[in-house]
Design brief:
Shape: globular
Bound molecules: zinc ion
Largest sheet: 4 strands, mixed
Distance between the termini: 11 Å
Length: 342
């Protein structure tokens, strides 16, 4: 099985052909998130360069996208070393190989993008080439070759994120108004207090820059907040008077928020939109309390990511404490079976 991955680099792609690989210059990663940056990446497989719509919200000249066609299992070796550190405990890498494979097979059946199956960034799954990989990642993918999670005869849509903050979330807080029976809200004490040593082992370098992901605090002056919301939404709310959480999901993540301004009031959702509109990049999560002071707002929050499905830090701690990958998978995806995909 071969997967086509779209890698967004810059308006015009620069690449260097090597013997069996190619290097893409200035690949943009973490697009729109707080770790947004550029790096050179090296890939195996074939490369095609095509025009793609400008990623800016405002549009503009078309960009180019690098489309890399590669064997699915080789793709997974890179994905698990990009999402988490390839030196993570083996059982975490195996669990990740299974969920990344399940998710990718579904995306190949029903692509998320035009012209390729998945993108290489956090929007789909991180795929940062060969340079973060090692033989342990290859071992984890080989040990779980072809294995996927199934529920009721279908391959599961295995969503995941960095840290739940203490409780995982359900589907409808983040995406469509449906119940996905295997994505339920469960308590996760595993990510409560990971030691700095574990975090150094399981997170890639740029993720280690994020220190306060389990409990965090953001303060804005009223002026700053009004400017951020105006820029991110493109709507002039005037001065922001209040932020009112109307609906919270099972973990506490807000999925309906009322923004009250002197010129405009609007109810927004779901969790990602709330995170995007209330930050210059993106808030760690939508699980936060709001404290309104006369001239500023304080958001006190928990967790990093949408919270639905597997908690990567929690799963890493489970693995480091001796749990097998099957146990990790059944903890975060309820009543699922591990099977070989046809
Ligand atoms: Zn994507
Ligand atoms: Zn957790």
């Amino acid at each position: 099985m071969e997967i086509r991955v779209g890698i967004l680099t810059a308006p015009k792609i620069e690449f260097e052909q090597k013997e069996d690989t190619f290097v893409l210059k200035n690949v943009r990663i973490g697009i729109g998130f707080h770790w947004d940056r550029h790096e050179d990446q090296e890939f195996a497989g074939t490369l095609e360069i095509k025009p793609t719509p400008n990623p800016s919200l405002k549009g503009g000249e078309p960009w180019q996208v690098a489309i890399n066609t590669i064997d699915l299992e080789d793709y997974l070796c890179s994905v698990i070393s990009s999402e988490m550190n390839a030196n993570s405990p083996m059982e975490l890498l195996k669990a990740h190989a299974v969920i990344s494979r399940s998710w990718a097979i579904r995306a190949m059946q029903k692509p998320n993008h035009e012209g390729f199956h998945v993108c290489a960034d956090d929007h789909c799954q991180r795929y940062e080439g060969l340079r973060r990989m090692n033989e342990r990642a290859v071992e984890a993918v080989n040990a779980t070759r072809g294995q996927v999670l199934m529920y009721d005869g279908e391959i599961c849509d295995c969503r995941y994120y960095k840290c739940c903050g203490g409780r995982t979330e359900i589907w409808r807080t983040c995406w469509e108004d449906i119940d996905v029976p295997y994505i339920q809200s469960v308590t996760c004490d595993w990510c409560k207090n990971p030691s700095p040593k574990i975090l150094r082992l399981v997170l890639n370098d740029y993720d280690q820059e994020t220190k306060d992901f389990r409990n965090w605090k953001v303060s804005y002056t009223t002026e700053e907040l009004s400017e951020i919301i105006r820029t991110k939404s493109g709507i002039d709310f005037g001065e922001i008077i209040d932020l009112v959480p109307l609906k919270r999901g099972a973990s506490g993540r807000i999925y309906e928020l009322k923004i009250v301004g002197t010129k405009h009031t609007e109810i927004i959702g779901k969790e990602l939109k709330i995170r995007l509109w209330l930050s210059r990049s993106c808030l760690y999560s939508s699980w936060f309390e709001i404290k309104k002071e006369p001239s500023f707002f304080v958001l006190t929050g928990h967790g990093w990511g949408h919270g639905a499905g597997l908690c990567q830090i929690g799963a890493a701690v489970m693995a480091s404490e001796g749990h097998k990958y099957e146990e990790i998978l059944s903890y975060y995806y309820l009543n699922t079976q591990l099977m070989i995909a046809d």
